[in-house]
Specification:
By secondary structure, this protein is α/β, with parallel strands linked by helices. About 25% of the residues lie in helices and about 25% in strands. It starts with 11 loop residues before the first helix and ends in a 6-residue tail after the last strand.
Length: about 250
Protein backbone atom coordinates (compact mmCIF):
# COMPACT_ATOMS: atom_id res chain seq x y z
CA UNK A 1 0.00 0.00 0.00
CA UNK A 2 1.31 3.46 -0.91
CA UNK A 3 1.85 6.08 1.76
CA UNK A 4 -1.00 8.51 2.32
CA UNK A 5 -0.52 12.11 1.17
CA UNK A 6 -2.59 13.40 4.08
CA UNK A 7 -0.31 15.64 6.11
CA UNK A 8 -0.76 17.53 9.41
CA UNK A 9 0.54 20.75 7.87
CA UNK A 10 -2.32 20.76 5.35
CA UNK A 11 -5.55 22.49 6.34
CA UNK A 12 -8.64 20.30 6.77
CA UNK A 13 -10.14 21.26 3.40
CA UNK A 14 -7.08 19.82 1.64
CA UNK A 15 -6.82 16.64 3.70
CA UNK A 16 -10.55 15.96 3.32
CA UNK A 17 -10.23 15.99 -0.47
CA UNK A 18 -7.10 13.83 -0.37
CA UNK A 19 -8.94 11.27 1.78
CA UNK A 20 -11.84 11.10 -0.69
CA UNK A 21 -9.45 10.58 -3.60
CA UNK A 22 -7.30 8.01 -1.80
CA UNK A 23 -10.44 5.92 -1.33
CA UNK A 24 -10.50 5.68 -5.14
CA UNK A 25 -6.87 5.34 -6.19
CA UNK A 26 -3.21 5.75 -5.28
CA UNK A 27 -2.01 9.34 -5.43
CA UNK A 28 1.32 11.03 -5.97
CA UNK A 29 2.54 14.61 -6.15
CA UNK A 30 4.33 16.22 -9.09
CA UNK A 31 5.75 19.74 -9.05
CA UNK A 32 4.83 21.42 -12.33
CA UNK A 33 6.84 24.39 -13.55
CA UNK A 34 5.05 26.94 -15.68
CA UNK A 35 8.18 27.77 -17.64
CA UNK A 36 7.35 31.22 -18.98
CA UNK A 37 5.80 32.54 -15.80
CA UNK A 38 8.32 31.26 -13.21
CA UNK A 39 5.54 29.59 -11.18
CA UNK A 40 5.67 26.16 -9.55
CA UNK A 41 2.51 24.20 -8.77
CA UNK A 42 2.26 21.13 -6.54
CA UNK A 43 -0.18 18.86 -8.37
CA UNK A 44 -1.64 15.79 -6.64
CA UNK A 45 -2.83 13.23 -9.17
CA UNK A 46 -3.53 9.50 -9.62
CA UNK A 47 -0.36 7.43 -9.70
CA UNK A 48 -1.62 5.38 -12.65
CA UNK A 49 -4.49 5.65 -15.11
CA UNK A 50 -4.70 1.85 -15.10
CA UNK A 51 -6.06 1.98 -11.55
CA UNK A 52 -8.99 4.06 -12.80
CA UNK A 53 -10.21 1.93 -15.70
CA UNK A 54 -12.80 0.22 -13.52
CA UNK A 55 -14.45 3.61 -12.96
CA UNK A 56 -15.40 3.80 -16.66
CA UNK A 57 -16.32 0.16 -17.23
CA UNK A 58 -20.05 0.92 -16.95
CA UNK A 59 -19.96 4.46 -18.32
CA UNK A 60 -22.30 4.71 -21.34
CA UNK A 61 -19.96 7.30 -22.86
CA UNK A 62 -16.89 5.19 -22.05
CA UNK A 63 -14.84 8.30 -21.41
CA UNK A 64 -11.34 7.10 -20.59
CA UNK A 65 -9.74 8.87 -17.59
CA UNK A 66 -7.67 11.29 -19.64
CA UNK A 67 -8.24 13.86 -16.89
CA UNK A 68 -5.83 11.98 -14.61
CA UNK A 69 -2.71 12.83 -16.65
CA UNK A 70 -0.53 15.95 -16.54
CA UNK A 71 -0.82 17.10 -20.15
CA UNK A 72 1.43 19.70 -21.79
CA UNK A 73 -1.62 21.51 -23.18
CA UNK A 74 -2.90 22.35 -19.68
CA UNK A 75 0.53 23.63 -18.68
CA UNK A 76 0.87 25.70 -21.86
CA UNK A 77 -2.54 27.29 -21.38
CA UNK A 78 -1.82 28.05 -17.71
CA UNK A 79 1.49 29.60 -18.72
CA UNK A 80 -0.20 31.73 -21.38
CA UNK A 81 -2.82 32.97 -18.89
CA UNK A 82 -0.14 34.08 -16.43
CA UNK A 83 1.70 35.93 -19.20
CA UNK A 84 -1.44 37.65 -20.52
CA UNK A 85 -3.72 37.91 -17.46
CA UNK A 86 -5.82 40.82 -18.72
CA UNK A 87 -7.73 38.44 -21.00
CA UNK A 88 -9.33 36.73 -17.98
CA UNK A 89 -8.85 39.02 -14.95
CA UNK A 90 -12.12 40.11 -13.38
CA UNK A 91 -14.19 38.31 -16.03
CA UNK A 92 -16.63 35.41 -15.83
CA UNK A 93 -14.62 32.50 -17.26
CA UNK A 94 -15.71 28.95 -18.02
CA UNK A 95 -13.26 26.06 -18.35
CA UNK A 96 -14.27 23.03 -20.39
CA UNK A 97 -12.50 19.91 -19.15
CA UNK A 98 -10.54 21.09 -16.12
CA UNK A 99 -8.50 17.89 -15.70
CA UNK A 100 -6.16 18.21 -12.72
CA UNK A 101 -6.74 21.94 -12.29
CA UNK A 102 -3.46 23.35 -13.60
CA UNK A 103 -5.15 25.83 -15.92
CA UNK A 104 -7.77 26.58 -13.26
CA UNK A 105 -5.07 27.45 -10.72
CA UNK A 106 -3.49 29.92 -13.12
CA UNK A 107 -6.84 31.53 -13.92
CA UNK A 108 -7.73 31.98 -10.25
CA UNK A 109 -4.27 33.39 -9.51
CA UNK A 110 -4.90 36.31 -11.86
CA UNK A 111 -8.43 37.01 -10.68
CA UNK A 112 -10.72 35.21 -13.12
CA UNK A 113 -14.25 34.47 -11.86
CA UNK A 114 -13.93 30.84 -12.85
CA UNK A 115 -16.40 28.01 -13.23
CA UNK A 116 -14.53 24.76 -13.91
CA UNK A 117 -16.30 21.81 -15.52
CA UNK A 118 -15.53 18.20 -16.30
CA UNK A 119 -17.27 14.90 -16.95
CA UNK A 120 -15.52 13.25 -14.01
CA UNK A 121 -16.35 14.18 -10.41
CA UNK A 122 -12.81 13.13 -9.45
CA UNK A 123 -11.39 15.70 -11.85
CA UNK A 124 -13.42 18.37 -10.07
CA UNK A 125 -12.04 17.26 -6.70
CA UNK A 126 -8.48 17.38 -8.01
CA UNK A 127 -9.06 20.81 -9.54
CA UNK A 128 -10.21 22.13 -6.17
CA UNK A 129 -7.17 20.50 -4.58
CA UNK A 130 -4.68 22.03 -7.03
CA UNK A 131 -6.12 25.49 -6.44
CA UNK A 132 -6.02 25.08 -2.67
CA UNK A 133 -2.40 23.88 -2.80
CA UNK A 134 -1.63 27.02 -4.83
CA UNK A 135 -3.17 29.08 -2.00
CA UNK A 136 -6.14 30.04 -4.19
CA UNK A 137 -9.83 29.65 -3.39
CA UNK A 138 -11.23 26.76 -5.40
CA UNK A 139 -13.45 27.76 -8.31
CA UNK A 140 -17.07 26.85 -8.68
CA UNK A 141 -17.21 23.38 -10.21
CA UNK A 142 -19.87 21.61 -12.27
CA UNK A 143 -20.02 18.03 -13.50
CA UNK A 144 -21.06 18.31 -17.14
CA UNK A 145 -21.26 16.07 -20.21
CA UNK A 146 -21.12 18.48 -23.13
CA UNK A 147 -21.98 15.68 -25.59
CA UNK A 148 -25.41 15.42 -23.96
CA UNK A 149 -28.39 17.60 -23.11
CA UNK A 150 -26.91 18.74 -19.81
CA UNK A 151 -24.45 20.83 -21.80
CA UNK A 152 -27.16 23.48 -21.55
CA UNK A 153 -26.16 23.82 -17.89
CA UNK A 154 -23.04 25.56 -19.16
CA UNK A 155 -25.08 28.60 -20.14
CA UNK A 156 -25.12 31.62 -17.84
CA UNK A 157 -28.38 33.12 -16.63
CA UNK A 158 -29.47 35.34 -19.49
CA UNK A 159 -25.90 35.91 -20.69
CA UNK A 160 -23.12 34.14 -22.53
CA UNK A 161 -19.52 33.64 -21.46
CA UNK A 162 -16.97 36.28 -22.49
CA UNK A 163 -14.09 33.79 -22.03
CA UNK A 164 -13.92 30.00 -22.31
CA UNK A 165 -10.74 28.00 -21.61
CA UNK A 166 -10.17 24.54 -23.06
CA UNK A 167 -7.06 22.35 -23.02
CA UNK A 168 -7.10 18.98 -24.77
CA UNK A 169 -10.86 18.66 -25.21
CA UNK A 170 -10.81 17.17 -28.72
CA UNK A 171 -9.34 13.67 -28.55
CA UNK A 172 -11.69 11.83 -30.91
CA UNK A 173 -13.76 12.53 -34.01
CA UNK A 174 -16.93 12.29 -31.91
CA UNK A 175 -15.74 15.33 -29.90
CA UNK A 176 -15.66 17.77 -32.82
CA UNK A 177 -19.32 18.64 -33.37
CA UNK A 178 -20.39 18.59 -29.70
CA UNK A 179 -17.56 20.93 -28.69
CA UNK A 180 -18.20 23.34 -31.58
CA UNK A 181 -21.94 23.26 -30.91
CA UNK A 182 -21.48 24.05 -27.22
CA UNK A 183 -19.07 26.88 -27.97
CA UNK A 184 -21.49 28.30 -30.50
CA UNK A 185 -24.24 28.41 -27.88
CA UNK A 186 -22.39 29.62 -24.81
CA UNK A 187 -19.75 32.10 -26.03
CA UNK A 188 -20.73 35.76 -26.23
CA UNK A 189 -20.41 37.63 -29.54
CA UNK A 190 -16.79 38.77 -29.79
CA UNK A 191 -16.04 36.36 -26.91
CA UNK A 192 -12.77 34.47 -26.59
CA UNK A 193 -12.16 30.74 -26.60
CA UNK A 194 -8.56 29.99 -25.59
CA UNK A 195 -7.87 26.48 -26.84
CA UNK A 196 -4.68 24.47 -26.29
CA UNK A 197 -3.96 21.23 -28.15
CA UNK A 198 -0.87 19.27 -29.24
CA UNK A 199 -1.56 19.13 -32.97
CA UNK A 200 -4.05 16.28 -33.08
CA UNK A 201 -5.73 15.70 -36.43
CA UNK A 202 -9.24 16.01 -34.98
CA UNK A 203 -8.41 19.36 -33.40
CA UNK A 204 -7.19 20.63 -36.77
CA UNK A 205 -10.45 19.51 -38.35
CA UNK A 206 -12.41 21.33 -35.64
CA UNK A 207 -10.46 24.54 -36.15
CA UNK A 208 -11.06 24.46 -39.91
CA UNK A 209 -14.79 24.00 -39.30
CA UNK A 210 -14.77 26.86 -36.78
CA UNK A 211 -13.16 29.18 -39.35
CA UNK A 212 -15.79 28.21 -41.89
CA UNK A 213 -18.46 29.15 -39.32
CA UNK A 214 -17.07 32.64 -38.83
CA UNK A 215 -14.65 32.29 -35.92
CA UNK A 216 -11.47 34.37 -36.17
CA UNK A 217 -8.47 32.34 -34.99
CA UNK A 218 -4.98 33.49 -34.03
CA UNK A 219 -2.51 30.68 -33.29
CA UNK A 220 0.85 30.48 -31.53
CA UNK A 221 3.00 27.62 -30.23
CA UNK A 222 4.57 26.68 -26.91
CA UNK A 223 7.52 24.28 -26.69
CA UNK A 224 7.71 23.62 -22.96
CA UNK A 225 9.68 22.09 -21.32
CA UNK A 226 7.12 19.63 -19.96
CA UNK A 227 7.50 17.56 -16.79
CA UNK A 228 8.93 14.13 -17.50
CA UNK A 229 8.90 14.67 -21.27
CA UNK A 230 8.39 13.93 -24.03
CA UNK A 231 9.30 17.14 -25.79
CA UNK A 232 6.63 18.46 -28.10
CA UNK A 233 4.79 21.52 -29.35
CA UNK A 234 1.48 22.75 -27.98
CA UNK A 235 -0.66 24.91 -30.23
CA UNK A 236 -2.49 27.78 -28.54
CA UNK A 237 -5.48 29.20 -30.41
CA UNK A 238 -7.32 32.41 -29.55
CA UNK A 239 -10.71 31.91 -31.16
CA UNK A 240 -12.93 35.02 -31.40
CA UNK A 241 -16.61 34.47 -32.04
CA UNK A 242 -18.19 36.55 -34.78
CA UNK A 243 -20.29 39.51 -33.60
CA UNK A 244 -24.03 38.97 -33.46
CA UNK A 245 -25.64 39.30 -36.86
CA UNK A 246 -22.50 38.37 -38.85
Amino acid sequence: MSESLIHPRYPPEINARIARLEALTRLETTVVNLPGADVRLAVIHPASIDDLLDTVAHDPEFNLPYWAEIWPSGIALADAILKDPALVRGKPVLELGCGLGITAAAATMVGAHLVATDYSPYSLLLTELTCLLAHQPPPQVRQINWRAADADLLQRSGERWPVVLAADVIYEARDIEPVLAVLGRIVAPNGLVWLAEPGREHASTALNLARARGWQIESTTHTGPWPGGPDGVVHLHKMIKAPAGD
